Amino acid sequence: MEQKLKKIVIAGVGLIGGSFALAIRSAGIKAELVGIGRDPESMQQALALGIIDRVAVEAEDAYGGADLILIAAPVAQTGGILRQILPFLGRDTVVTDVGSTKADAVAAARQVLGDRIAQFVPAHPIAGRELNGPSAAISDLYVGKKLVITALPENQDASVRLVESLWKMCGAQIHFLSPEVHDAVFASVSHLPHLLAYALVHEVSQRENADTLFQYAASGFRDFTRIAGSSPEMWRDIAMANRDALLHELDAYIAKIVSMRSDLESGDAESLYKTFSTAQYARQRWVDAIEAAEKDGCAAALTKKNIF
Amino acid sequence: MEQKLKKIVIAGVGLIGGSFALAIRSAGIKAELVGIGRDPESMQQALALGIIDRVAVEAEDAYGGADLILIAAPVAQTGGILRQILPFLGRDTVVTDVGSTKADAVAAARQVLGDRIAQFVPAHPIAGRELNGPSAAISDLYVGKKLVITALPENQDASVRLVESLWKMCGAQIHFLSPEVHDAVFASVSHLPHLLAYALVHEVSQRENADTLFQYAASGFRDFTRIAGSSPEMWRDIAMANRDALLHELDAYIAKIVSMRSDLESGDAESLYKTFSTAQYARQRWVDAIEAAEKDGCAAALTKKNIF
Predict the structure, then answer these.
(1) B128 touches A at CB < 8 Å
(2) Which candidate, A58, A97, B9, B61, has a CA 20 to 30 Å from the CA of A303?
(3) Which CATH code is given to the segment(s) A2-177?
(4) Could you tell me the Gene Ontology terms of the biological process aspect for this record (chains A, B) (predicted)?
């Protein structure tokens, strides 16, 4: 099916959109790859790097006649981009996205697309790098990584299968969740830790003796706060977009540390030990499992590459 | 001064004590290096690896006639080891330690050593690896790393200078703090993050859908929780030993995330953004500074190696 594609549009050719373009091209996709984005310099860079075949400036030129449109811009822009797409949205065009929150993307899409919502297949690749922009794009960013599709009841099977097959070509492992479950899961294992890391660095940075504190912060602090190096705009948008789930996770976490505080204050070393050792054991099991899965994923990806 | 040393005792020859022994030997120290420890197998391993010259089993054999004794065991054992040392403590012997908390080590030393407290010079190397035991010991563990001496008013200058010069030989940068300031600083930038990381993994591991949550946890979660892979015994002891400072930090942190929760609930995206961006900027400045310092440290260490 994917070999019949003639035109694929990447709306936002940064790390995520650019890596998708490089990956499907290197997997054998012959379609014209058209880029469109807010920053002309960035688009010219993507063109010069051979990530896309051409840059479109006007919405009609970009989106008209497209087989697939990938929206790879910060989540808060999804609605606006869909509004630009709508007048030129072909009857058989499939639109997908890469946003870190899904319920809000679906709500925006329902509002903008109305009875054409069936053409929007929401997705989220669980991959990234500490670098941004087209120059950070690499063809193997998604190899062995998860890609979550939060398909809608209105989606046609063929549309979902198209999105699935393109991401499989990138080497990703496809998972299906509802938008609500997706958002609850990522509130817990991604959005909450980001907020907690920002909170710690902010707390330290506001102290009178901040310079002394930072002077003695070592590798543990550095790892713990690595995600506080992420884009504040992006994470503000994610936090606001996934507010209810994130509030729920924050409340559970606050209750947990208040309970550990009480163990510490009352000198209940045994209870603290139990919490620490349960956590350490659970983390070790998880690390063992992902390391095993990564090995399998790499093996599968290598086999796959030999096919093309 | 350090070239006159004839006998140096390492009480606890694991990663920290073993790396100290390897580093001072490779820096040219000729003294006999004697190891003593609770685990006979581990001591034999340290001997076989050439980290120490011999293993002592009896306290008199180990500590008698020592010029320097390094206590490199978990902090809760400091008092017990000092009790074993006391009957054989020479008049000119200097005792030092490597504990992550200092006020408790000083209190234990004052209680055990009484009017011989001047011979105890408390110290804390800010270095580690994810591995433990003698086989993890490496001679350059401390190169460019900080070594904090929390000298006591009773310490003689010569004793402090001896500890300082040995750690300088290991490539460490020497810093001086009071035990109380040391403990407050590390409660903030080390002990609190450990507790927070354990708390997050524990919270996730206790959920009904823990398997699903761990399945979607990615590299951000992994970095954030890396320190929750640390020894639960060690961190229980550190938390209990530094309880007051840690409670203080926990309260400040809880207040911070409660305030961020309130921004999130009321939809104050601007305030959240301000917190995130202040934190991101502060962290970037800090990372830039340590990367510059690491370069300088390595350059200095390389120069130093050429001297020997």
Answers:
(1) yes
(2) A97
(3) 3.40.50.720
(4) tyrosine biosynthetic process
